[in-house]
Amino acid sequence: MFRGENGLVDGPAQARTADAKACLRAQMKSAREGMPVSAWIAGNEAIRARLFSLDAWKRASCILTYLSVGAEADTRGIVQRALAEGKSVVLPRCSGPRALRWYRVDTLEGLEHSSLGLDEPPADPAREIDPAQLGSNALAVVPGLAFDVAGNRLGAGGGYYDAFLQSFAGATVGICFAAQQVESLAALGALEEHDQPVQTVVAG
Protein backbone atom coordinates (compact mmCIF):
# COMPACT_ATOMS: atom_id res chain seq x y z
CA MET A 1 0.00 0.00 0.00
CA PHE A 2 1.49 3.35 -1.03
CA ARG A 3 1.62 6.28 1.38
CA GLY A 4 2.18 9.92 0.72
CA GLU A 5 4.07 12.38 2.92
CA ASN A 6 0.98 12.91 5.08
CA GLY A 7 0.93 9.23 6.03
CA LEU A 8 -2.30 8.53 4.15
CA VAL A 9 -2.77 6.20 1.23
CA ASP A 10 -2.10 8.26 -1.86
CA GLY A 11 -4.78 9.00 -4.43
CA PRO A 12 -3.75 6.57 -7.18
CA ALA A 13 -3.26 3.66 -4.76
CA GLN A 14 -6.56 4.37 -3.04
CA ALA A 15 -8.31 4.51 -6.40
CA ARG A 16 -6.80 1.19 -7.46
CA THR A 17 -8.01 -0.46 -4.25
CA ALA A 18 -11.49 1.01 -4.70
CA ASP A 19 -11.59 -0.26 -8.27
CA ALA A 20 -10.41 -3.73 -7.21
CA LYS A 21 -13.06 -3.88 -4.50
CA ALA A 22 -15.81 -2.75 -6.86
CA CYS A 23 -14.80 -5.33 -9.45
CA LEU A 24 -14.65 -8.15 -6.91
CA ARG A 25 -17.99 -7.14 -5.38
CA ALA A 26 -19.59 -7.34 -8.84
CA GLN A 27 -18.02 -10.76 -9.47
CA MET A 28 -19.14 -12.16 -6.14
CA LYS A 29 -22.67 -10.83 -6.44
CA SER A 30 -22.92 -12.41 -9.89
CA ALA A 31 -21.57 -15.75 -8.65
CA ARG A 32 -23.95 -15.79 -5.69
CA GLU A 33 -27.03 -14.75 -7.61
CA GLY A 34 -26.26 -17.15 -10.45
CA MET A 35 -26.27 -20.23 -8.22
CA PRO A 36 -28.86 -22.88 -9.13
CA VAL A 37 -31.51 -23.30 -6.45
CA SER A 38 -30.26 -26.80 -5.68
CA ALA A 39 -26.72 -25.51 -5.10
CA TRP A 40 -28.02 -22.66 -2.93
CA ILE A 41 -29.97 -25.09 -0.74
CA ALA A 42 -27.02 -27.50 -0.47
CA GLY A 43 -24.65 -24.64 0.32
CA ASN A 44 -26.88 -23.41 3.12
CA GLU A 45 -27.15 -26.89 4.59
CA ALA A 46 -23.35 -27.20 4.58
CA ILE A 47 -22.90 -23.76 6.16
CA ARG A 48 -25.33 -24.54 8.96
CA ALA A 49 -23.81 -27.95 9.66
CA ARG A 50 -20.30 -26.49 9.89
CA LEU A 51 -21.41 -23.49 11.92
CA PHE A 52 -23.32 -25.59 14.47
CA SER A 53 -20.31 -27.87 14.91
CA LEU A 54 -17.98 -25.03 15.92
CA ASP A 55 -16.91 -24.84 19.56
CA ALA A 56 -17.66 -21.11 19.40
CA TRP A 57 -21.29 -21.91 18.56
CA LYS A 58 -21.61 -24.60 21.21
CA ARG A 59 -20.34 -22.40 24.03
CA ALA A 60 -22.13 -19.21 22.92
CA SER A 61 -25.09 -18.13 25.01
CA CYS A 62 -25.78 -15.16 22.71
CA ILE A 63 -25.83 -15.09 18.90
CA LEU A 64 -25.61 -11.80 17.02
CA THR A 65 -26.57 -12.16 13.38
CA TYR A 66 -27.80 -10.19 10.42
CA LEU A 67 -30.96 -11.17 8.54
CA SER A 68 -30.15 -12.36 5.05
CA VAL A 69 -31.83 -11.00 1.92
CA GLY A 70 -32.10 -12.34 -1.60
CA ALA A 71 -29.41 -14.83 -2.59
CA GLU A 72 -27.29 -14.32 0.53
CA ALA A 73 -26.49 -17.33 2.65
CA ASP A 74 -29.63 -17.86 4.71
CA THR A 75 -29.52 -16.79 8.36
CA ARG A 76 -33.14 -17.36 9.34
CA GLY A 77 -32.44 -21.04 9.88
CA ILE A 78 -29.52 -20.00 12.09
CA VAL A 79 -31.82 -17.78 14.15
CA GLN A 80 -34.38 -20.56 14.57
CA ARG A 81 -31.70 -23.05 15.65
CA ALA A 82 -30.27 -20.59 18.17
CA LEU A 83 -33.70 -19.93 19.68
CA ALA A 84 -34.46 -23.65 19.81
CA GLU A 85 -31.22 -24.18 21.74
CA GLY A 86 -32.20 -21.50 24.25
CA LYS A 87 -29.60 -18.99 23.11
CA SER A 88 -30.29 -15.26 23.07
CA VAL A 89 -30.56 -13.83 19.56
CA VAL A 90 -29.64 -10.23 18.81
CA LEU A 91 -30.31 -8.53 15.46
CA PRO A 92 -28.99 -5.25 14.04
CA ARG A 93 -30.82 -2.09 13.05
CA CYS A 94 -29.13 0.60 10.94
CA SER A 95 -29.08 3.85 12.91
CA GLY A 96 -26.83 6.04 10.75
CA PRO A 97 -23.68 5.95 8.63
CA ARG A 98 -21.47 3.02 9.75
CA ALA A 99 -23.74 2.64 12.79
CA LEU A 100 -25.73 -0.36 13.99
CA ARG A 101 -27.87 -0.74 17.10
CA TRP A 102 -28.69 -4.21 18.33
CA TYR A 103 -31.92 -5.63 19.77
CA ARG A 104 -32.76 -8.97 21.36
CA VAL A 105 -35.57 -10.91 19.66
CA ASP A 106 -37.57 -13.99 20.63
CA THR A 107 -39.18 -14.47 17.20
CA LEU A 108 -38.85 -13.37 13.60
CA GLU A 109 -42.37 -12.00 13.66
CA GLY A 110 -42.93 -8.26 13.94
CA LEU A 111 -39.81 -7.20 12.05
CA GLU A 112 -39.80 -3.86 10.26
CA HIS A 113 -38.82 -3.48 6.58
CA SER A 114 -36.35 -0.62 6.24
CA SER A 115 -35.74 1.80 3.38
CA LEU A 116 -32.54 -0.18 2.67
CA GLY A 117 -34.61 -3.27 1.94
CA LEU A 118 -33.63 -5.01 5.17
CA ASP A 119 -35.77 -6.67 7.82
CA GLU A 120 -34.87 -5.12 11.16
CA PRO A 121 -36.01 -5.50 14.77
CA PRO A 122 -38.15 -2.72 16.24
CA ALA A 123 -36.21 -0.03 18.11
CA ASP A 124 -37.41 -1.13 21.55
CA PRO A 125 -35.20 0.44 24.25
CA ALA A 126 -36.07 -2.38 26.64
CA ARG A 127 -34.52 -4.89 24.26
CA GLU A 128 -31.44 -2.96 23.17
CA ILE A 129 -28.10 -4.70 23.71
CA ASP A 130 -24.64 -3.11 23.66
CA PRO A 131 -22.39 -5.67 21.90
CA ALA A 132 -19.29 -4.07 23.43
CA GLN A 133 -20.57 -5.17 26.85
CA LEU A 134 -21.03 -8.81 25.88
CA GLY A 135 -18.40 -11.25 27.04
CA SER A 136 -16.59 -14.08 25.33
CA ASN A 137 -19.74 -16.25 25.29
CA ALA A 138 -21.20 -14.19 22.45
CA LEU A 139 -20.82 -15.16 18.79
CA ALA A 140 -21.36 -12.78 15.89
CA VAL A 141 -22.31 -14.16 12.47
CA VAL A 142 -20.93 -11.63 9.99
CA PRO A 143 -21.96 -11.06 6.36
CA GLY A 144 -19.58 -10.55 3.47
CA LEU A 145 -19.42 -10.62 -0.30
CA ALA A 146 -16.05 -12.37 -0.08
CA PHE A 147 -13.76 -13.82 2.57
CA ASP A 148 -10.22 -15.10 2.27
CA VAL A 149 -8.65 -18.02 4.08
CA ALA A 150 -7.16 -15.69 6.74
CA GLY A 151 -10.59 -14.31 7.64
CA ASN A 152 -10.26 -11.01 5.82
CA ARG A 153 -13.60 -9.75 4.59
CA LEU A 154 -14.97 -7.77 1.66
CA GLY A 155 -18.25 -6.17 2.68
CA ALA A 156 -20.85 -4.26 0.72
CA GLY A 157 -19.01 -0.99 1.24
CA GLY A 158 -21.02 0.69 3.99
CA GLY A 159 -18.46 0.11 6.73
CA TYR A 160 -21.09 -1.04 9.25
CA TYR A 161 -19.38 -4.26 10.22
CA ASP A 162 -15.85 -2.84 10.19
CA ALA A 163 -17.03 -0.40 12.88
CA PHE A 164 -18.86 -3.15 14.78
CA LEU A 165 -15.93 -5.59 14.74
CA GLN A 166 -13.54 -3.01 16.16
CA SER A 167 -15.32 -3.02 19.51
CA PHE A 168 -16.76 -6.55 19.70
CA ALA A 169 -14.90 -8.89 22.06
CA GLY A 170 -16.78 -12.11 21.35
CA ALA A 171 -16.13 -14.77 18.73
CA THR A 172 -16.72 -13.87 15.07
CA VAL A 173 -17.55 -16.07 12.10
CA GLY A 174 -18.14 -15.12 8.50
CA ILE A 175 -20.47 -17.25 6.41
CA CYS A 176 -20.50 -17.50 2.63
CA PHE A 177 -20.85 -19.89 -0.26
CA ALA A 178 -17.71 -21.64 -1.52
CA ALA A 179 -17.66 -19.46 -4.63
CA GLN A 180 -17.26 -16.40 -2.39
CA GLN A 181 -14.08 -17.58 -0.68
CA VAL A 182 -10.72 -16.57 -2.15
CA GLU A 183 -7.13 -17.28 -1.21
CA SER A 184 -6.10 -13.69 -0.45
CA LEU A 185 -7.98 -10.41 -0.68
CA ALA A 186 -4.67 -8.57 -0.33
CA ALA A 187 -3.28 -10.33 -3.40
CA LEU A 188 -6.36 -9.20 -5.31
CA GLY A 189 -5.76 -5.61 -4.24
CA ALA A 190 -9.03 -5.60 -2.29
CA LEU A 191 -7.83 -5.12 1.29
CA GLU A 192 -7.29 -1.90 3.25
CA GLU A 193 -5.92 -1.24 6.71
CA HIS A 194 -9.33 -0.35 8.15
CA ASP A 195 -10.93 -3.62 6.96
CA GLN A 196 -11.67 -5.81 9.97
CA PRO A 197 -11.27 -9.62 9.76
CA VAL A 198 -13.31 -12.37 11.35
CA GLN A 199 -11.82 -15.19 13.39
CA THR A 200 -13.40 -18.03 11.43
CA VAL A 201 -14.91 -18.46 7.96
CA VAL A 202 -17.53 -21.10 7.26
CA ALA A 203 -18.13 -21.73 3.55
CA GLY A 204 -20.63 -24.10 2.00
Please characterize this protein's 3D structure.
- With 204 residues, the chain is of the alpha/beta class.
- The protein has helices spanning 11-33, 37-53, 55-59, 76-84, 160-167; strands spanning 62-65, 88-96, 99-105, 112-113, 119-120, 128-129, 138-142, 146-148, 153-154, 171-176, 181-182, 200-203.
- The strands form 3 sheets. A 7-stranded mixed sheet has the order 6-3-2-1-7-10-12, sandwiched between helices.
- β8 (146-148) and β9 (153-154) form a beta hairpin.
- The model is unreliable at 1-10 (pLDDT under 50).
The dominant shape is globular
Name the strands of the widest sheet in spatial order.
Answer: 6-3-2-1-7-10-12
Rg, Cα atoms, Å: 17 Å
**Count the strands?**
12
Give the helix level as a range of percent: 25-40%
N→C terminal distance: 32 Å
Outline the low-pLDDT stretches: 1-10
CATH architecture: 3-Layer(aba) Sandwich
Describe how the helices and strands are arranged.
Layout: H1 11-33, H2 37-53, H3 55-59, E1 62-65, H4 76-84, E2 88-96, E3 99-105, E4 112-113, E5 119-120, E6 128-129, E7 138-142, E8 146-148, E9 153-154, H5 160-167, E10 171-176, E11 181-182, E12 200-203
A few lines on this structure:
With 204 residues, this protein is an alpha/beta fold. The protein has one domain: Rossmann fold, CATH 3.40.50.10420.
Features of the shown structure:
204 residues
